[in-house]
């Protein structure tokens, strides 16, 4: 009993020490995910992210098309920075890309994008599909226009939307990611930042199929874990070469390399995950009876995708105590 009290006291002291050093949270030890709720109560909420998406339990729906505004613009004022937890990509000047449609009520303005990854290529994504992990996940964070900014938006249940994209391995490098991995080499130190050398288009770093996605209500996956996020998890992964994913693992926090920065899955509770399949998908499949119609199916799908994206819219600390077996 005495030992337990002393241990709890020691842990609290260490937590306080880390917090006074400006270390809000981490992914290991006493500042790891199981302790986030000590300081940030909402991290113990009932509608937390990430989750495992069980494909057999999703509710199939056909939502209005998502409109991606400014996603094919060539943006030349992009900044890449290391905030000690992940790499952030931000757009300096207005106008920012935006999204509307799908499950969203109103316009959502781009705030920043960032990544989550694991120690090796077998895990690293936050959400999982049928308990499958992906080596990395991209989060594009948007705030609802009517709330004007992130600070205000996080106070409302529909304040944010995050477009999430999974990565999977490919033998070939993805050319649109060369720019990003090059920038990473200049921001390996925490709190460092660099301007991207060449213009950059959102559409080029995303998968081809933006029509099929899962959507559910959840939270930020980092403290304060606010339950204000409409998640859209796109089904088609982005394909990157091993070396391109490896480049992210070179980033450092104040305590060494950021080898992993994903939160473990949280209980789904009473929530429903919806799966959007565009209505044309079924009619194409019905036509799929011979080779000729298969070919027209492919063309049809190609055209349909472009209709939805018209061009103008288109440590010393982590080793101190591993007291809880939380992974
Ligand atoms: Zn994230």
The computed structural class is alpha+beta
CATH superfamily: Alpha carbonic anhydrase
Residue-averaged pLDDT: 84
- Element-level helix/strand string: HHEEEEEEEEEHEHEEEHEEEHH
Instruction: Figure out the total of helices.
Output: 7
Verbal overview:
- This protein has 327 residues and is α+β, with helices and mostly antiparallel strands.
- It contains seven helices and 16 strands.
- It has helices spanning 2-20, 36-39, 150-153, 178-184, 242-246, 279-287, 291-308, and strands at residues 52-53, 59-61, 66-69, 78-82, 87-91, 98-101, 108-117, 128-129, 136-144, 160-170, 193-195, 213-218, 229-241, 252-253, 256-257, 274-276.
- Strand 14 and strand 15 form a beta hairpin.
- The structure holds zinc ion.
- Zinc ion binds next to strand 7.
Describe the structure using short key phrases.
327 residues; globular; Carbonic Anhydrase II; disordered C terminus; binds zinc ion; twelve-stranded mixed sheet; two-stranded parallel sheet; alpha+beta
Summarize this, please?
This protein has 7 helices and 16 strands. By secondary structure, the chain is of the alpha+beta class.
Topology diagram in text:
Elements: H1 2-20, H2 36-39, E1 52-53, E2 59-61, E3 66-69, E4 78-82, E5 87-91, E6 98-101, E7 108-117, E8 128-129, E9 136-144, H3 150-153, E10 160-170, H4 178-184, E11 193-195, E12 213-218, E13 229-241, H5 242-246, E14 252-253, E15 256-257, E16 274-276, H6 279-287, H7 291-308
Parallel strand pairs: 1-8, 2-16, 10-13
Antiparallel strand pairs: 3-6, 4-5, 4-11, 5-7, 6-7, 7-9, 9-10, 12-13, 12-16, 14-15
Helix pairs in contact: 6-7
Bound molecules: zinc ion.
The site of zinc ion has 4 residues, from strand 7.
